[in-house]
From TrEMBL:
Its EC number is 1.17.99.6. Transmembrane segments: none annotated. GO terms for molecular function: 4 iron, 4 sulfur cluster binding; cobalamin binding; epoxyqueuosine reductase activity; metal ion binding. It comes from Alkalispirillum mobile. Belongs to the QueG family. One of its GO terms (cellular component) is cytoplasm. The lineage of its organism: Bacteria, Pseudomonadati, Pseudomonadota, Gammaproteobacteria, Chromatiales. The gene is queG. Its cofactor is [4Fe-4S] cluster; cob(II)alamin. The active site is at D138. The keyword Iron-sulfur applies. It holds the Pfam family QueG_DUF1730. This is Epoxyqueuosine reductase.
Length: 355
């Protein structure tokens, strides 16, 4: 195909992607060598914590053609997820309630976005015939934020998240690797954070150790989602009532006021997760957890770590009779992980100094 026909195809791809509900689409050159240095430096510092797979994949993340040979371009898509009407600050300030990261209040995004990317690939195939491609949605070693930046979908902020003037950072990313020689968009490497350091200053655990530097070992999202062992005691009081992820660095960002609420029904809060009491969630049986979290990103956490996180939040909350009773009911839980965090929480609630 000629350069003109590729240019025309790129325009149609953008139109098709938006028709499918994506709120942003761009085309990136897969050359990410400038990001490889920072990836390797991050790994050398051990900032990935127990996420061993980050190191095992090596430079596949920064060299897309090693992940999918023949890759010439990456179609990067964006989908807003912030639900309208959710009141994050009021929940964070109420120690009786559970705070769940906004992205996990509704249905899991992976399947929805992957299906749409597959539809987009088939639409391209109907236009140009068979071609090499593969869709990814947080499912392979992909530097998705760097790809999004190269596709002109945003700039990487000081909190290390991709962000855009019109959507802040409240969006999911997905990629379609392709062997088509599509014209690439100009990268958006110039950021708009200026001298602002609001995200750095608000981080409860000081996980953002400097502009564009994140030590995942201290990050509440890592501790409550990816980490499968005991949460370090020194960090537990700093977690507050955040039981699955953390949004503080996004909530405080000045660009957040321009964020557009999601139009996706699947991303609206389910089971009252945007306003539910900790005691209620802590009382769920394993079967109730599995049933109610079906189709949710939270389900992969498992009931044991769900209880671990809730126990920490209860220990950080008010010492009510209901909270103490709920913890006492789990004191003899079969899991050592749960028992240890329950004991810590009870000690916090019963100690005059709160810990």
């Amino acid at each position: 195909m000629t350069a003109d026909s590729m240019q025309a195809l790129a325009g149609r791809i953008r139109s098709w992607a938006r028709e499918m509900g994506f709120t942003g689409v761009g085309i990136a050159d897969p050359d990410l060598r400038q990001d490889e240095y920072w990836l390797l430096r991050w790994l050398q510092h051990g900032w990935q914590g127990t996420m061993g797979w980050m190191g095992r994949h090596g430079v596949k993340r920064s060299r897309p053609a090693r992940l999918l040979p023949g890759t010439r371009r990456i179609i990067s898509v964006r989908l807003n997820y912030q639900p309208e009407g959710a009141e994050p600050w009021s929940v964070l300030q109420d120690g009786r309630k559970a705070y769940v990261a906004r992205y996990a209040l509704g249905r899991d995004y992976h399947k929805l976005m992957r299906q749409r990317l597959q539809r987009l690939a088939r639409r391209i195939e109907a236009e140009v015939g068979p071609h090499g491609y593969r869709a990814f949605v947080d499912s392979a070693p992909v530097l998705e934020k760097a790809v999004g930046r190269e596709a002109n979908l945003g700039w990487i902020g000081k909190h290390t998240l991709l962000m855009d003037r019109d959507a802040s950072s409240w969006f999911f990313l997905g990629e379609l690797f392709t062997d088509l020689p599509l014209p690439a968009d100009p990268p958006r490497r110039q950021g708009h954070c200026g001298s602002c350091r609001a995200c750095i200053d608000i981080c409860p655990t000081r996980a953002i150790i400097g502009p564009y530097q994140l030590d995942a070992r201290r990050c509440i999202s890592y501790l409550t989602i990816e980490h499968d062992g005991p949460i370090p005691e020194a960090l537990r009081p700093l977690i507050g009532n955040r039981v699955f992820g953390c949004d503080d660095c996004q909530l405080v960002c000045p660009w957040n006021k321009f964020a557009q609420p999601t139009a996706e029904a699947d991303f609206q809060p389910r089971h009252g997760l945007d306003q539910t009491d900790l005691v209620t969630l802590f009382g769920w049986t394993e079967q109730q957890f599995l049933d109610r979290m079906a189709g949710s990103a939270i389900r992969r956490l498992g009931h044991e770590r769900w209880l671990r996180n809730l126990a920490v939040a209860l220990g950080n909350g008010p010492a009510s009779a209901e909270a103490v009773a709920a913890l006492e009911a789990r004191r003899a839980h079969p899991s050592e992980l749960v028992r240890e965090h329950v004991a810590w929480a009870l000690n916090r609630l019963r100690s005059p100094s709160g810990g």
